[in-house]
């Protein structure tokens, strides 16, 4: 049976500097409208958890869901356009 110390070099062979790369930061920036829309939807859902369902509450959830859907569509369209090389 091998000790974990014997395997440490294999497990920690590549140093990690705990910082995201520029490509990762660009990807997060590209997805930021979707992230913000999902956070807004979550805020609305949390806000309405302990309240009875009202017409206004339904409207708030519907609008937040529509914003998430629009952000997802926009992100998907941009990704598809990038894969096609910018040609529609």
How would you portray this structure in words?
By secondary structure, this protein is an all-alpha fold. The chain has helices at 4-11, 22-47, 55-83. Helix 2 runs antiparallel to helix 3 (55-83). The protein is flat and about 60 Å long.
Structural class: mainly alpha
Overall 3D geometry? flat
N- to C-terminal distance: 59 Å
Described by strand count, sense and barrel closure, the largest sheet is:
none
Write down the overall mean pLDDT.
86
Helix percent band: over 70%
How large is the count of helical segments? Answer: 3
The number of strands is 0
Strand content: under 5%
Low-confidence stretches: none
Series of H and E elements: HHH
Rg: 22 Å
Provide a quick synopsis of the model.
The protein is about 70% helix and about 0% strand.
Highlighted features:
88 residues; mainly alpha; 72% helix; 0% strand; flat
Element layout with pairings:
Layout: H1 4-11, H2 22-47, H3 55-83
Helix pairs in contact: 2-3
